[in-house]
Write the structure tokens for this entry.
Amino acid sequence: MLKICEKNKSFNGFQEVYEHQSSTTKSKMRFAVYKPKNSKNCQVLFFLSGITCTEQNFIQKSGYQKYASNKNIAVVVPDTSPRGKNIPDSEDYKLGCGASFYLNALTNPWSTNYNMYDYVTLELPKIIEDNFNFDIKKLGIFGHSMGGGGAIQIALKNPNIFKTVSAFSPICSIIKSDFSKKTIQEYLGSNVDSINTYDPITLIKLLQREDTIKIDVGLDDEYLENLYIKEFEKECQKHNQKLEINYHQGYGHNYYFIHSLIESHFQFHSSLI
Amino acid sequence: MLKICEKNKSFNGFQEVYEHQSSTTKSKMRFAVYKPKNSKNCQVLFFLSGITCTEQNFIQKSGYQKYASNKNIAVVVPDTSPRGKNIPDSEDYKLGCGASFYLNALTNPWSTNYNMYDYVTLELPKIIEDNFNFDIKKLGIFGHSMGGGGAIQIALKNPNIFKTVSAFSPICSIIKSDFSKKTIQEYLGSNVDSINTYDPITLIKLLQREDTIKIDVGLDDEYLENLYIKEFEKECQKHNQKLEINYHQGYGHNYYFIHSLIESHFQFHSSLI
């Protein structure tokens, strides 16, 4: 049962926000949906946001609705983690609420609720299929920072669910990045196999996609050395993964960068479907 | 002395935020500036935001940078009021910080600091002229809600400073609107002449502009009856003020509406300079 929380006309469609009880995260979850005007059987994109974000940041700040409207693409933006008074959290912004890293946690107290990998790959696609008239077979995924890495690790393992993939400034090594290296130990303990399952650089050595992965990153990104994008690029070359990567002079890690490049991601995803 | 607080590349220019000590409001003030790539002698627009906003709302949510970049227009976005621990405020969001209504207050405790009319018409244009290489003679003004009404009342009295004017969902009657009728009594007492000076509908009977005023408003605007736009339109017709007014089916009072229509405002202002 979906409860609608927000509905606002934006360009030719509507920007909506829904709430529901998730069986995967055992909590209430919110996600945003952009419904373009002619939504019947339209293409769908999932956008995964970065650390500290909710479903609101991308829908308020990226300016994407213009392109979703023009290209008649539905966009689904989940929250970045479960939330609520019974949901484990921490004072570190890199762990707990807002910082799920889109994985299934294995350890206490996280494993009951922090199952965002299953939420994004199983529960949410089913909810969208059951409640909206979009064509879930034309589903792609993209994201930013933590969510850019999340989009890549999810897409590499699920090419049958996610037909296209792109990322802004993705964290390509959850093992090495200062954003994630402690967090994944909290969520996954010392289970190296499981950690590797969520690590884009490790995965790309084992799994490649037939379609191109698109990445954009700013050269003035204040976190550039914590993203490990060059290392990911090198592994893509080594393992023949087609990669369209662009480094952009002057841009940072923020939504001003995403907004400046967002049109090209809609062009990319629509060109492949 | 301007202190730079934020600088982020956005499209071909930079979105910046500055802080300075204002002689008009006797407080620190922040304003945002979008510097397009070729800013020398470029056109400038001031954007006045609505109640509760700071300089951040418009720069994060409206998506305007794409058009400012394309058309090489600088945009200056002041905060909506003075702020700080020594600045009078109230618990009512319609009075005090975030709700200056762009007038010069006459009564205690407001009159020392709440001089946003002078700030926008005198101090800020001078600061921009002295610190940036834009052409201040090509200055226009626009705004939203409280700021839409503010843009209109300011432009009607200052055609030599502001060469073009437009508004999203403006409050056209500060005397009648529930957003302002109590507030203006707080700021201006029972001084009817002064109140009339800041009331768009009263002003348009006395002062008309040679150029067209552009207004956009959503027909699903939840505050439509508190904006008095139809009444303003009627007075414009009666007094031969050229008005380009468009009512848009389905849109509300929010930034999703502004974002959907923002391109047309850049087209409008650039076409007149």
